[in-house]
Amino acid sequence: MKCLIFVSLFVFSCESAVITDGFRRQREINERPIIGVLSQEQSRYLHSKFPEENYTSYIATSYVDDIEKSGARVVPILIGKERSYYRELMQKVNGVLFPGGATFFNQSHGYADAAQHIYEIAQEFNEAGDYFPIFGTCLGFQLIIILASGRGPIENRETCYSFENLPLILSPDFRSSKMYKDITDEQVKTLVNEDVTVNSHQFCILDKNLEAYNLKRDWKATSYGYDKNNIRFIASYEHKRYPFYAVQFHPEKNAFEWKRSKRHPHSMRAIKANRHFMDFFVDECRKSTHSFQNEREENQYVIYNYPAVATGILGSAHQQCYFFEPRGTVSNQ
């Protein structure tokens, strides 16, 4: 009898292990996330500093540093490419960041066109059950809503001016959001009580922009701020079904941009509070199981193929930038 009981328990234990292992595989977390960062047209200022180099797009290194600080690597995504390029690359990376900047949305084959390809492909992936996050910062924040609105001839955003550090006004139900549900009480205290979010924008998204295109059905505003004319703008939002998120401010600047005239808050509290946003996004990207074929292919695409160029010493607001030339090419060296 004792032997039979022993055998029965042993079999049950083995079956439980199989079930447990199967559950873990379904919930697999990617511990080697790689995130695509979309480049954008070179600004007039940067072009004036590098007139002979024929640079056509760039990425500020602060975005790369911010992602790496959260435990991921970066692949640059170039503008001026066919839709097939973006689809192929998105099948390899685990999410995409639309950075802030100063470019226009009406430049053919530029930042906005590339972002539209990425946004639409990401929608397809998520509809098919393929988890694929997107995060927008400042200009990218505005562009996502414009894309969600259908990107008509009239851009669905408003003029407002905020070039200062502000606290966040969190929505009353912010704890029910995906972005803020796990934020620490200490980070919340800093964000709502201190001027620690870096704002640098002349356009914004208001509640009426969500209402105008019936976007409140799919999008949830999670925090607000006030510009210099006391206009209440949305400071962060998220999609209700897809893992799409964005912030109007610049969490990457607190720790990685140092131009004195910009007066970015560099206190430890400010840095710790703003770390929440990229830590959150990278954790979302860990849920994507996309991958390159092997390490050799990874190494052909990562940002380390490009030199970081010192631009802060030339007067730029960015300490360093990665530049790409000519438009639409990728170095595999």
Automatic annotation (TrEMBL):
A Pfam family: Peptidase_C26
Subcellular location: Secreted, Extracellular space
Keyword Hydrolase appears in the UniProt entry: yes
Signal peptide: 1-16
Reactions catalysed according to its record: (6S)-5,6,7,8-tetrahydrofolyl-(gamma-L-Glu)(n) + (n-1) H2O = (6S)-5,6,7,8-tetrahydrofolate + (n-1) L-glutamate
GO biological process terms held by the UniProt record: tetrahydrofolylpolyglutamate metabolic process
SUPFAM superfamilies xref list: Class I glutamine amidotransferase-like
Alphabetized GO MF terms: gamma-glutamyl-peptidase activity
Keywords for the protein's UniProt record, in alphabetical order: Hydrolase, Secreted, Signal
Active-site residue numbers: C138 (nucleophile), H250 (proton donor), H250
Assigned EC number: 3.4.19.9
Ion transport found in the keyword field: no
InterPro entries in UniProt: Class_I_gatase-like, Pept_C26_g-glut_hydrolase, Peptidase_C26
CC annotations in GO: extracellular region; vacuole
Family: Belongs to the peptidase C26 family.
Protein name, as recorded: folate gamma-glutamyl hydrolase
Organism: Leptosia nina
